[in-house]
Structures are given as structure tokens and as C-alpha cells.
TrEMBL record:
Belongs to the LysR transcriptional regulatory family. One of its GO terms (cellular component) is cytoplasm. InterPro entries: LysR_HTH_N, LysR_subst-bd, MetR_PBP2, WH-like_DNA-bd_sf, WH_DNA-bd_sf. It comes from Conchiformibius steedae. Coiled coil: none annotated. This is HTH-type transcriptional regulator MetR.
Length: 309
């Protein structure tokens, strides 16, 4: 029998096993759900057997699917290691990756990604530029950083962007707050509330920039630099806040606060990696972006795909 197996098929099966969901697996491998389903159906037609049980919760692979999944788990790490080795042979192993971060909540996923990157690129000096950066792209242009995590891909001749992911911003309030009764919050719901935010300008906060200020709504503010402090203030009825769903989910599960959708469609934020155009072909910089995307979709709930740059 002529084999049709390709690495993309194995990556798809590994993503499906990791996520247990066609939709989330499609995001992980940057396909539409229909394209992923087509891939699987093609394999099933070729081998004349199903690879997993439809409608099973949690998803269960058939014996045929388990055999291909075993191959994926054996082969994919070897392929990734060989690709890194070849890159280091051709381009050299040494380098530096100084990260500048615009987003206060980035560290929820950034630290795990750094943990994956370090053993794969041991000769690359990886560091975070100290402190929160209001203009991380300026650090790239002044050679004080090598990669910046930003929320907007603002066109600049010297800068290129790598899309990371989009995520939902949710409104949070105390469980006994009046807004807890509303499933979806609109801009006017914030008018009479104290909005608790990070101490940054409004043009760096998606809720004011995208929803409130365009409608002439500018509620009073209270500031805190720490996500946990914002959650504590909200839980004690000092105000309301808008934060990424993944960052508040543990506190929602403990009933410290409740989370509600903001707007229709839901308020979304985006993250991009910015790098100097002259560095856009540095393999380890692009590999770091791939790791961030992969680890993000593997560990954070509520992510969605951004289109390729």
C-alpha cells in the first residue's frame, strides 16, 4: 500500500489528542476546522478505518488512531530536534533574545514558553527587558531589545510582525454586584462604575480604546499594577475590571468574582511579536514565536487564531 502519511497528518493527530477537540486542534495547527476534518477523512479513507470515535467525550482514538498517534509522538520530537540541529549547523548556535513586553498579563504564558525555548536553544541568551514597557517597539529600533510582545501591529518600515493569538477580554465583578445578573455587558454598563485598570494610557487598554471612549463613556478609574490586586479590588466591590479570560478563570472557579462577556461580538484582544525587519530570518526568533503560539493554544482557554502576517 502506498503511504500518504505526511508530517502534517501526524501534527494534526497529536494536536487532536492534546486538545480533545476538532475546533481547538484546528487552531493549534493553524487550519480551519473543515480543513482539519478533510485531512482526517482522507487518512480514514486511505486506511479504510476510522481513527477516532465521533461523539465520544472525552475523545477516544480507535486502535488504528492510537497506532498513528504513537508514531506521531515518536517521530515529531525527532524531526523538531533535527531541524534545530541543522539550523544551528548552518547559522550558528549563539545569539541573544531580549524580550520587551507591553502586556501585564503576558507572563501567564510567556514563562512556560521560555521554559520550552531554553533547552532547545541553549546557546541563545534569553532575557526579559526589565519592567513593563509602554513602547516596546522603540526598544527594538534602538537595539535595546530583539523581540517585543505588542497588542497592535502598527505598520512601520523597519518592523515586521508575527501573529501570536487573539483572546477574549471579559468583564469581572463581585458575585453580589448588580452587573452579575447581566450575561452580556454593554458600554453603558460601565458608565456608573469605577473601572480598575493597570496604570497605563487608555490607548493601551482595549476596553476604553475599542468600546468605551468611541461611545463617549469615560468612567472613573482606580489603578493597580498586579492582576491579583485588581481581582481582589473587584471582589471587595471597589469597582469592575476587564481582563483576559484565562487570567481570571481560576478566581471565577473559586467564586471570588464572576466573568461576563463584553459586547456583541465579544471584546477581543490580539497579541503580536514584533521584530526588526533585518532580523526577520533569524531562525531562533521565529522558533520562539512558534513556541509561544503552540504553548498558548495548549495551555490557555479561549484563544483564537490570528491571520498570518
Amino acid at each position: 500500500m502506498e503511504s500518504i502519511l505526511e508530517l502534517r497528518h501526524l501534527r494534526t493527530l497529536a494536536a487532536l489528542a492534546d486538545t480533545g477537540s476538532l475546533a481547538v486542534a484546528a487552531q493549534r495547527v493553524f487550519l480551519t476546522q473543515s480543513a482539519l476534518s478533510h485531512q482526517i477523512r482522507a487518512l480514514e479513507k486511505h486506511f479504510d478505518t476510522p481513527l477516532f470515535e465521533r461523539k465520544s467525550m472525552p475523545l477516544r482514538f480507535t486502535p488504528a488512531g492510537e497506532r498513528l498517534l504513537k508514531l506521531a509522538h515518536e517521530l515529531l520530537p525527532l524531526v523538531a530536534a533535527a531541524e534545530r540541529d541543522l539550523t544551528q549547523i548552518v547559522h550558528g548556535e549563539a545569539g541573544q533574545l531580549r524580550l520587551a513586553v507591553e502586556c501585564h498579563t503576558c507572563f501567564d504564558w510567556l514563562m512556560p514558553a521560555m521554559g520550552v525555548f531554553r533547552p532547545q536553544w541553549p546557546q541563545v541568551e534569553l532575557d526579559i527587558v526589565s519592567g513593563f514597557q509602554a513602547d516596546p517597539v522603540a526598544l527594538l529600533l534602538s537595539q535595546r531589545a530583539d523581540l517585543a510582545i505588542v497588542s497592535e501591529a502598527v505598520p512601520q518600515p523597519e518592523i515586521v510582525y508575527r501573529p501570536l493569538f487573539a483572546y477574549e477580554m471579559v468583564g469581572i465583578c463581585a458575585p453580589d454586584h448588580a452587573l452579575a445578573e447581566r450575561k452580556i455587558w454593554q458600554a453603558e454598563d460601565f458608565a456608573a462604575e469605577t473601572l480598575i485598570t493597570y496604570p497605563v494610557p487608555d490607548d493601551m487598554l482595549d476596553l476604553p480604546r475599542k468600546l468605551l471612549l468611541p461611545q463617549g463613556i469615560n468612567p472613573p478609574r482606580r489603578h493597580s499594577e498586579l492582576t491579583i490586586a485588581i481581582v481582589q479590588l473587584v471582589a471587595s466591590r471597589r469597582g469592575v475590571a476587564a481582563l483576559p479570560y484565562w487570567s481570571v478563570m481560576p478566581y471565577v472557579e473559586k467564586n471570588y468574582v464572576v466573568a461576563r462577556q463584553i459586547g456583541t461580538p465579544p471584546l477581543q484582544s490580539e497579541l503580536y511579536a514584533a521584530l526588526r525587519r533585518q532580523d526577520q530570518d533569524r531562525i531562533y526568533l521565529n522558533d520562539f514565536c512558534d513556541i509561544v503560539r503552540r504553548e498558548g493554544f495548549a495551555t490557555l482557554p479561549g484563544l483564537s487564531r490570528l491571520s498570518a502576517d
